[in-house]
Design a protein that fits this description.
about 425 residues; mainly alpha; Growth Hormone, Chain: A; two-stranded antiparallel sheet; globular
Length: about 425
């Protein structure tokens, strides 16, 4: 049960006298994401090796698949956010997206070439694109405005627990039966379908502020790309353009240290553990000192990842440091970006505003993956990482200017506090 408490003239609401609590909807959506990420990270953790060692694809082909993984979801993010806002049924839009991703796990059983694997990855990412903005809109709508960063941090922590468990499950299965990728795909599908069951059966259909009647998609698009969002969107897109995909970073570490293939999935575990430990603290820090500062600080950590991954010093300590810094980057950016965007968007366009930011990021990462695969072939992994690091440093300086004052304009809506009774 939820109680919405508004400030009253001449007095303070009950919510103002105590620290905001995390809504049940946030926790339930976190559990759905936990189960789904166990599934997706089981596949993602073994996919680079499966493609390069088992299927026999080259680094450039992997860059194409990784680009699809990063960018295809952009095709439906704006649509998912808009449909969630327009229909006022964000839960069911998100549930369809989770279901599409679950079905794609079954497709891995028959995908044994570049075309088939690309189709399966495309289906999975379309599902992610459809569900992400409606889900984040439900998180934002059910959270106290003072604790947006903390709420997204709680959700991302649960999400990342699943992302840490998934590679360990895949590692254990391949350790027991080397090369048995089909078993990984089957178990992955099982976790995904349980996640779909949880959102359908247990997550309340918490309605967001609906799009006003007669409001066209074009009008809504103009609103979410207006002056309040334009500079943050440009900054997020530029920074994402120089964000190297995790798979490339892990392949670089494996080649540098001549790591045995069976240990490859554990690299995903390391970065995800760092992420889950830091997601809530960084969410709270963002609420306290400013979301733009934490967001930019995360990209400083990413710059350090490139320097240590490409540096001459290998070994276990260097790998652990890279994984820790990579988790720091995700903890400081993944949940902080929607928390940064939410106050800049009117309540009736919340899902669409979050989707706009996420679309810019995934499109930029799609281009980044394709470009980095080519740079790897031309320059080698070390020089490619140093080059991207230099470009990221220059972009950080520009982004400081672009994001200046981006938290100064609140959304035109009444502040609400929501607690679980």
């Amino acid at each position: 049960m939820y109680l919405t408490l508004r400030d009253r003239p001449g007095g303070k609401s009950a919510a103002s006298s105590a620290a905001p609590r995390i809504a049940t909807t946030v926790v339930l959506l976190g559990i759905v994401s936990l189960l789904t990420d166990i599934s997706s990270e089981m596949v993602n953790a073994v996919l680079p090796l499966y493609l390069t060692a088992e299927v026999g694809l080259g680094v450039l082909a992997y860059g194409f698949v990784d680009g699809l993984y990063q960018g295809v979801s952009a095709l439906l993010r704006i649509g998912g956010g808009y449909v969630g806002d327009r229909s006022n049924r964000p839960k069911w839009v998100a549930a369809v997206g989770y279901g599409l991703s679950a079905l794609s796990r079954v497709g891995m059983l028959v995908a044994h070439n570049l075309a088939a694997i690309s189709a399966v990855v495309t289906a999975d990412r379309l599902g992610k694109g459809l569900r992400t903005a409606p889900r984040d809109a439900m998180i934002a709508d059910s959270s106290d405005p003072r604790a947006l960063g903390r709420s997204f941090g709680v959700h991302r922590t649960l999400d990342t627990i699943g992302a840490a468990i998934g590679p360990m499950v895949a590692f254990s299965m391949l350790l027991l039966v080397p090369g048995d990728y089909n078993s990984v795909w089957v178990v992955s599908a099982g976790f995904a379908f349980v996640g779909v069951a949880v959102i359908v059966l247990f997550v309340p259909n918490r309605k967001t502020k609906a799009v006003r009647a007669g409001q066209s998609f074009r009008h809504l698009l103009r609103q979410v790309t207006g002056p309040r969002l334009r500079r943050p969107l440009i900054a997020a897109g530029l920074l994402a353009l120089f964000t190297v995909g995790d798979g490339f970073l892990y392949l670089s570490l494996q080649q540098r240290d001549h790591m045995a293939a069976k240990y490859f999935p554990l690299l995903y575990v390391g970065s995800n553990i760092s992420y889950l430990l830091l997601a809530i603290p960084f969410g709270r820090l963002a609420d306290r000192i400013g979301r733009t500062r934490v967001f930019l600080g995360g990209h400083v950590a990413l710059l350090a990842v490139y320097l240590f991954a490409a540096g001459p010093f290998g070994g276990a300590w260097s790998t652990v440091l890279v994984l820790g810094l990579l988790g720091t980057y995700y903890a400081a950016t993944d949940g902080v970006l929607p928390a940064l965007v939410t106050p800049l968007v009117d309540a009736h366009a919340r899902g669409s505003g979050i989707a706009a930011a996420q679309t810019v990021v995934v499109l930029a990462r799609f281009a980044s993956s394709l470009a980095f695969g080519s740079l790897w072939l031309l320059l080698g992994s070390t020089h490619a990482l140093f080059l991207v690091g230099g470009l990221l440093l220059a972009t950080l300086a520009l982004s400081v200017w672009l994001l200046r004052g981006s938290e100064a304009t609140p959304a035109a809506e009444e502040s609400e506090s929501e607690v679980t009774a």
